[in-house]
Amino acid sequence: MALNNSQYDEIMREYQRRQAADRQRLDERTKKALAAVPSLRELNGRIAALSVARARKYLNGDDRAIDGLREEIAALSDTRRALLEKGGFPADYLEMQYACPKCRDTGYIGSEKCTCFRQAVIDLLYTQSNIRNILETENFQHFSFGYYSDTVKNPSTGLTALATMQKLVAECRDFLDNFDRQSDNFFFYGDTGVGKTFLSHCIAKELIDTAHSVIYFTAFELFDLFSKTTFSRDRSEAEELKEMHSYVFDCDLLIIDDLGTELTNSFVASQLFLCVNERLLARRSTIISTNLPIDVFRDTYSERVFSRISSGYKIRKLIGDDIRIQKKIAGIRP
Prior knowledge:
The protein is α/β, with parallel strands linked by helices. Helix content is about 55%, strand content about 10%.
């Protein structure tokens, strides 16, 4: 599944389209600002003329021509920002706005592929793009606490289903706010339909929108990939699977959904330990969700797996009534 030339070209064409759109939006903002604040035109001309004049001197052999240029332009730029704010515009209104500020919509930071490029590869090769349609409705904007009871309580914490989810959503928000500064992991468990997958999708949406690489797998899909990578006798197929295998370990966030629905055996348990352990060591965040009670999970996947998860993950139990049934009763389409 490595990128071939046409696939690579397809991704790079998308970056070219992004850059063209960035420039077009800046042109439109510039026209609007110049119409509202005419003095900006003269100031922009001074900045351009200063840069050109100094460049000519430098090319003609004056090595000191660019001394102080940065400071002079910075001073003029400060004046421009002040004029914009006085005219009712944001101070950065005439600066280029990028979909990915990290790489400035080029796909690369120096010679390294940006995380947004990695996500583009994931979307192109591994049918992850279908999750984007789901994320249009399953996100924090559409999240509702109305499905969680304020009377049903978790006996071990004393918190109601509503209070439990309010606390957990706050934790997830904090997880997102600090995502680039610290590595955290979540293990969501609870009955079917209490919002484990929906909450994972909310987190995925926020990270993808901020140019992080996210891979979502059901447990069956993940272990099917591991099985094919390990046991395939077709050399070309094995080579094709290697890149996806590496993305599982290297992506910014890996979501393993519905753990416990796959056919579990010693191979699955060993591969789960490998995945969990390697990502913990690499300080890469992972979210795991399961319908299994904790004791059943431990017995199913071994004490060794459970030990790594209990020591490296925030284990959170979700409680409440099945939201899918609540929606069906209310006549709301899932």
